Amino acid sequence: MASPLTPPAPGALQIQPLFPVALGQVQLRPDPLDLARQLQVMLALRGEAQSNPDPGCAWTGDLNGVWQLHRHPVFAPLLAQIAGQAQAYLGQLGFDPARVALHIQRCWPVLGEPGQVVGRHHHPNAHLSAIYYLNGDGSGRTGVLRCWPLRQVNELVPGLAVGHGGPLSPTAWTQPWQDVAPRAGLLLLFPACLDHAVLANEDEEELRCSIAIDFALTAAAAAPGDSPPEYLAPHPSQWSAITEDGSLPASPP
Ligand SMILES: [Fe+2]
Predict the structure, then answer these.
(1) Which residues contact 213 (CB under 8 A, 6 or more apart)?
(2) What is the 171 CA–ligand 1 centroid distance (Å)?
(3) How many angstroms separate the alpha carbon of residue 244 from the centre of ligand 1?
(4) pLDDT digits over 213-230, tens only?
(5) CA 119 to centroid of ligand 1, rounded, Å
(6) Fold annotation for 24-144+181-223
(7) Closest by alpha carbon to 29, among 208, 183, 212?
(8) What are the extents of the domains in the chain?
(9) Predicted TM-score (pTM) of this structure
(10) How confident is the model at residue 252 (pLDDT cuts 50, 70, 90)?
(11) Is 159 within 8 Å of 167 (Cβ atoms)?
(12) Which of 8, 95, 182, 214 has minimal Cβ neighbours within 10 Å of its Cβ?
């Protein structure tokens, strides 16, 4: 049950946030040798490619056959750590860990050369997304992550928050977006439906390096006689894949 709003003090207008977006942040402490090894592997996986393929767009592994970094021995320990943080995020959101199963769908490297960007998008295939930064000093020079709200209800007049000449000054209630600066070892977790982009890498000397992860939530595997919660897909181990000829495999005993 949600906690009730605090009643305002008499006299003064008080504004309270009603429905905050849950951006999870954890500063991990990567071992420098592990980091160096991971960067080396990411560069080797990118190979000769430099972009996606538009020269202005960063190289992203998901579009280039590199989408299962979590199964790579050099990254598996890091992904186990990230998965633990994702579980903690779900716990803080109120999910019952015994009734939800969290799956890594995809995990891919993103490498941004100087000047490159990643356009605004979200991840409609997933439920929860994460980004882990292998470098960055917190200044945002290599390109911030920009996040947009699903809908800007507080601007009252649609479009006014980004309109030229306003009249609407940006405040915490009306800011059109929120930027997050990369920092080596920083992990972000956020709903996969949140629109985001990467602004241009303005550091001529630095390659911007991050890993993106998509998670899916399903019900935990149901015991015989039990059924999964209504709004969660059943656990994939209890699905039946239909074969190419349209037949169903034999039911398990
Ligand atoms: Fe993304």
Answers:
(1) 70, 79, 82, 86, 104, 106, 107, 129, 130, 131, 132
(2) 26
(3) 32
(4) 999 999 999 999 999 999
(5) 9
(6) Jelly Rolls (2.60.120)
(7) 183
(8) 24-144+181-223
(9) 0.93
(10) low
(11) no
(12) 8
